[in-house]
Structures are given as structure tokens and as C-alpha cells.
Amino acid sequence: MSPLSSGAADLSRFSINQMTVKQLSLPELADSCLELGVPGVGLWRAPVQEYGVEAAAKLLRDAGLAVTTLCRGGFFTAIDPAERAAALADNRRAIDEAATLGTDTLVLVSGGLPAGSKDLYGARERIADALTELGPYAEKHGVRLAIEPLHPMYAADRCVVSTLTQALDLAERFPAHQVGVAVDTYHIWWDDNAPAQIARAGAGGRIHTFQLADWTTPLPEGVLNGRGQIGDGSIDMREWRTYVEAAGYTGPIEVELFNDALWARDGREVLAETAARFVEHAA
Amino acid sequence: MSPLSSGAADLSRFSINQMTVKQLSLPELADSCLELGVPGVGLWRAPVQEYGVEAAAKLLRDAGLAVTTLCRGGFFTAIDPAERAAALADNRRAIDEAATLGTDTLVLVSGGLPAGSKDLYGARERIADALTELGPYAEKHGVRLAIEPLHPMYAADRCVVSTLTQALDLAERFPAHQVGVAVDTYHIWWDDNAPAQIARAGAGGRIHTFQLADWTTPLPEGVLNGRGQIGDGSIDMREWRTYVEAAGYTGPIEVELFNDALWARDGREVLAETAARFVEHAA
Fold first, then answer.
1. Residue B186's domain is classified under what CATH number?
2. How far is CA B92 from CA A187, B83, B88, B145, B241, in A?
3. Number of domains in chain B
4. Residue from the list A162, A192, A235 with its beta carbon closest to the beta carbon of B118
5. Considering CB atoms only, which of A113, A119, A234 is closest to B156?
6. Does A77 lie at the interface with B, CB-CB under 8 angstroms?
7. Is the CB of residue A27 less than 8 Å from the CB of residue A3?
């Protein structure tokens, strides 16, 4: 019997993002989810492509697991026309993959400053240009795009959209069923404007996913793989869950951790721990 | 003849923060400034205390160098009463030292979350409590307190004041000659609200110092010593200088870098390079 089975009802909103346990193959991930009573998974394009998109879709469908998001499209900020065309083509493929996997949400990491550029404003406008092309394409495939504001420490090299306010300013240029936002505690927890922006997003039907990670320090070199296990850091998960639910969000809650220490451990054990932490701190 | 002497007039607003060239002793720093035509220095408490506060004051006065700021007071967020009393006492000493050094500005790094706390709001209120006590003390000594918003990546462990907006919301509870803000490009460059907040600060006479550092990636482990040399990163220094000057700021412009690569080099060479970069990118 699973150590969590007595509390299985509390996992009804839980989804495990594949990156949290990237040491597990897709079949191992599906098996572990079934064993623990985890109802959904968020997927990443590279491991899904490696396994085969159709095969992954079948595997998860047969296991009865919901695919809550696909990560990720984006990287829209190039200036060079050929690079921009390649990014758009790649994002159309990402939308196709999302549709094949049966998820309604493609998460977007919008891209940083092009080499040598210091123009955040121009980069944000190029994101809007890309969404003008991709929004209708996504709608046609039953997929919603979720602009994820990334923590300001990624503004130069990864994502010039640094706050929920900026993400909504972009998203609201488009219909909500085409473009919304990803609310991720790790990126917004420091921002005293974020609760009001969650309300704004909810009122517009634009909270397309809600993701959890905790903030732990010291940050590692490169600051990519420091997303802390739920409960280990400075973020009050229940507070943020309250904000999104007050804003009308009733969807899955994904735990997405990038963390070298977790990746070095047994993946099933990490998944069980993560589910238990979700129940303790966020359910 | 100094390589910069032909452009010495362009250094009239330049001040070198002591941490940028911490490998130099105070006498070496003073000599190098005189040689290069650098008119001002921003000081740090620890090396000044080590040299002797009175002796440092005399050294810099005799050299004709302005002390543009003293870094730093702050760390106001403790909950424990004894810790809070100790912080207040230490900040009174910092104000005394600033007055002795002849600078009108003490920069405040307000402090992070106490161990185990997740309450950013409460921590910010404790900063306000401390300023209620320290503001009048500073005024009596002819010193202004400058709340420095630190980049959101420091919110947990160093400074819960993450934006100019938050810093001004705090500062405006007090008279401007007691409490203002530090505008530092490194901490605010990503924030599209910052230009309007600089205008707000200037209108209230609350820009108490303006500091430069560039944003370079990848960030180092712990993210403390990644402040990039001017011109090496993503920040348009002239743009930010334009904002503070449009807001009425006419004071010194300090370059404050924490950077292991710069610290490993000859300090006089780094100072000359920094002055040259200031002229090239910000004068």
C-alpha cells in the first residue's frame, strides 16, 4: 500500500512536472504516478520527443493520467528574421505536440535579450508580434498559450517578461482562450503586486496553469537548478493557493522543481516525497 | 600623465565605491583617486573601522576627496527583541560614523526574512518601525538614510525591499531629509515601473544616491559577486542616468562592483578601467 493512499483525495489537484523527476523514464513516471495516486503530469518537449510524441500520448492515455501542461514554447525575442521564422516554426510544432498529448496548455518562456541588445522594451514587443501569429494557430488546435513571467534574475538571458503585470499586459492583447499566463510561486513570491495581478488574471480567465516551487538559498551558479522542494524555503504555498483559488482557478497544481540534489536521488522516492510535501504544505 | 587626464572633466560626477577595488588599502585608494582625477569615494564600514574612522576621515579630507556614501546600515527585520535592539544600536553607530566621515548618506540594506519566517509583509513593517527610531537620530547628525531596494533574488536572505516602489512606500512615511532611496541600476534595470518611480523619488527629493553596476550572466553561486563592470552587460547606463537627471538628481554617481575577477586584478588598474568605462558609458 502506498504511504500516501490514506490521503489520496488530497492529491486530486496535484500534478507532477516531469522535470522534477527527470531521472525517471516516461514509463517509470507513469507507473510511479499510478502507484502513488498522482492524477496528472506536466511534460517537457525534449524527453517526450525522445520517447516519441504519439507513443507518449498513448502511454499516458492508457495509464489514465492527465497531461496538465507541455513545457515549453517561446524564445521569441530574436531580431534576425531567419531566427524569428525558425522560432515560430518550432512553436507551431510545440502546439502540435501539445494537441497530440491531449493537454490544453503550452507554457511559454519568452526569451531574453538578443546578444548585444539592451532593449527590454523592444524584446517584449517582439513577443507580442509572435503571439499575433501563434495565438490563432494554437486556438485552431485547442491549445492555450501560457506566458510565464520568470523571476527578474532571468531577464537578460532567459525571459524579459519578469512580472505577472508584464505577462498580463501582453496576454490581454489577445483572447483569453488563446493567451493567458502561468502563475509559478518561485518567480513571483517576492512581488507585492502579484496577488492583485492573480485576481486580474482570474477575472479574465487567464490563469492557464499554477505551478509550485519553493525559494531556497544560496542560489546555485547560473541560478537555474535552485528550485527548492515544497516546504524547504521561504514561500507560503497555501497563501498563493488561496490567491489563485479566490481568483477562480480550479485546475491542476503542478510541482516543478529543477534541483541537482533531487535529481541525484531515486526518482520514485522524490516523487513520493514531493506528493507528501504537496499534501502537507499546499493541499 | 594619467590616461584619463584629457577627459578629467567627465569624471566630475564620478565616485568609486570602495568595494569595487577592495584590494586597495585606504591610503592606496586615496592616492589612486588623486592620480586619476577621481573626486569622490563611497566607503564601507568594515574597512573604515579597521583603519580607524577618525583616521579615515582625516586621510580623505586631507586628500580633498568627497565621501559620497557610507555602506551600510540596515538589517532591521529580526523579530527577537534583543536582536532588534542590537541592530538599532549598530545603526546609530553607523550614523555616527557617517557623520564623522563627512558624508550625508548612509545606505541601508534592510534585511531578509528571519529564519523560518515566510512573512515578507511583516518584515517590511519592522523596517518601518526601525526607521521611526533612526530617522530623527540621523537628522540630528546631518545624515540621510537611503533605503536600497535590492534585486528580488535577494528577497529571502538579504533585503525584503525588492523594488523602488516598495522603497518609496517606506521612505515616504518619513521626511525626505531623514529617509530616501538608493537608485542602483543593478537592482532595478529589469523593472518597467522603475523609471516612473525614479521620477516619484526625484519629485520628493528622495534620490539620496545613484549607483551603477552592469548585469552580466551567468550569475555566480550565491549571486553576490556578479556585479559586472560598466559596459560588460545588459544595462544601458546612459538611459538610467537620463532618468535620474530628469528627476532632478545632480549628485555623485558611484560605481559599486562586487566581482571576484576584478578583485583578483591590480586595484589601481581596475580603478583606471572603471573610470574609463564610466566616461565611455555613463558620462
1. 3.20.20.150
2. 36, 14, 6, 11, 32
3. 1
4. A235
5. A234
6. no
7. no
b/e map A142-152, b = 16+ CB within 10 Å: ebbbbbbbbbb
Residues B36, B272 contacting (CB under 8 angstroms): yes
Q: Which residues pair with A78 in a beta bridge?
A: none
What is the C-alpha to C-alpha distance for residues B274 and B256, in angstroms, rounded to an integer? 10
Name the minimum distance, in Å, from the CA of A149 to any CA of chain B. 12
- Nearest 5 degrees, angle CA B186-CA B199-CA B91? 60
With beta carbons under 8 A apart, name residues in chain B contacting A166: 192
Quick check: is B218 in a domain? yes
Give the distance from CA B84 to its chain's centroid.
23
DSSP at B150:
P
A166/B190 Cβ within 8 A = no
**Is B156–A219 a contact, with Cβ atoms under 8 angstroms apart?**
no
- Does the CB of A219 have a partner CB in chain B at under 8 Å? yes
Set of chain B residues whose Cβ sits within 8 Å of the Cβ of A118 = 234-236, 239
pLDDT band at B9 (very low <50, low <70, confident <90, very high): low
- For residues B228 and B214, the answer to whether their CB atoms sit within 8 Å is yes
* Grid coordinates of B213: 553596476
Joined grid coordinates for residue B249: 538628481
Contacts of A138 (CB under 8 A, 6+ apart): A95, A106, A144, A145, A178
Residue to substitute from A162, A216, A217, interface B, most B β-carbons within 10 A: A217
A233 neighbourhood in chain B, CB within 8 Å: 156
Q: Establish if A115 touches chain B: CB-CB under 8 angstroms.
A: no
In a domain, A6, yes or no: no
Please write the tens of the pLDDT for every residue from B213-224: 999 999 999 999
Query: Is there a domain that residue B11 lies in?
Result: no
Residue whose C-alpha cell reads 501582453 in the numeric block: A170
Q: How many angstroms from the chain centroid is the CA of residue A228? A: 15
Contact call for A162 and B223, based on CB within 8 A: no
ipTM score of the complex? 0.95
| pLDDT tens for each residue of A123-168 | 999 999 999 999 999 999 999 999 999 999 999 999 999 999 999 9
Task: Looking at the complex, report in whole angstroms how far the Cα of residue B30 sits from the nearest Cα belonging to chain A.
Answer: 34
Main-chain phi, psi angles of A141, to 5 degrees: -100, 10
* Of residues A151, A166, A222, nearest to B192 (C-beta): A166
- Reported as a single tens digit per residue, the pLDDT across A212-234 is 999 999 999 999 999 999 999 99
In a domain, A277, yes or no: yes
Give the structural domain span for A258: 12-281
